Amino acid sequence: MRIGILTLPPHANYGGILQAYAMQTVLERMGHDVVVFNKPIKKQVLPFPMSFLHYIVRFIKKYIFRKANVYVFKEQKIYKFQKVNTLYTDAFVNKHLHNKFVDTLGYIKNEYDAIIVGSDQVWRKIYFNGSWEKSNPDDAYLAFTNDWNIKRIAYAASFGVDYIELDDTDILKCKDAIQRFKAVSVREKTGVDICKKHFNVDAKWVADPTLLLDVSDYLTLAKDSNSLFTGKYILKYALDEAEEIYGLAHKLEEQKGFPMKELKTHEKDSLSEISNCTRRPVEEWLYAFAHAAYILTDSFHGTVFSILFHKQFTVIANKERGISRFTSLLSMFGLADRLIFSPNEYRQLPDIDYDKVDIRLEQRRSEALDFLSEALK
Fold this sequence. Notes:
Layout: E1 2-6, H1 14-29, E2 33-38, H2 50-64, H3 74-85, H4 87-96, E3 99-101, E4 114-117, H5 125-131, E5 151-157, H6 168-178, E6 183-186, H7 189-199, E7 204-205, H8 215-222, E8 234-237, H9 243-256, E9 260-262, H10 282-290, E10 294-297, H11 300-308, E11 313-316, H12 324-332, E12 339-340, H13 354-375
Parallel strand pairs: 1-2, 1-4, 2-3, 4-5, 5-6, 6-7, 8-9, 8-10, 10-11, 11-12
Helix pairs in contact: 8-10
């Protein structure tokens, strides 16, 4: 079958890139021809005379009123930032993903036997519509394919939070679109309840695509890394920086007796520091997790790869990014005690028994493959 994967465009998010890679790989090993829909990074162009007016206003703010962080040619600055920021991650995407680049979802042609939505927070409106321009909320539920004769499947689609971020009008449109799906599965257990309550759809709770590949698949990718992560170290990988997280990292250094090394998403966020904002290669990201002696993270996929690489770890709940993602994942493997809501809650725990974890993981992989095989019949 010719299958398209609709997810958030994989550019700079390590977890987003790797879940798309995993989904593509699983489907290919099942014998299918797979593409991942992706959006090219392009310069934003303001139409004339609007552009001229914007440039004049910005010039006045910057040079007359001395406003900080105002850029006259902001669009060009953002484009340069994006290109530098994704230099290494896009290299991985272009090498390992079978990209089908489209500017908007409306450019996708009716040439597929099936389209799979997911994984990642593809059903979180703020992320989907912010990533796919000129799209409607129901396009995340394949509304743009309503008159196509294809199989529509959701695999591990995520709402991100334990409630739906849609108004009543959008819910009705999305409900109409999802009724055309052959099979629906979600990444979080709370997503099952959301689908039933708002869409009257029975969804299955499944594992994130990254969990469907063997650890050897990721170690093969990590071999291409020229990593600086050597020796015995505590890996700190935090999406949201906070002094208390640093404090806990240093506490772990004293307790474990080896140094903390930080895996940053990028060095700087400021547009004024473009030269320092390149994200590290995906291969190095994997290498850092694979060789860490202990992991401290607030990232969902940071947690996933801590489990896959059989690491001892602590997860700090990232409330603004959604708690249900963590509670769902950790409960799936009997690891709920690894989650803390404040660095002050940290306590030393017995080592994780990965023999028990692996039994659960194999069961989840088997269920996932059964789900996909049945949905694609």
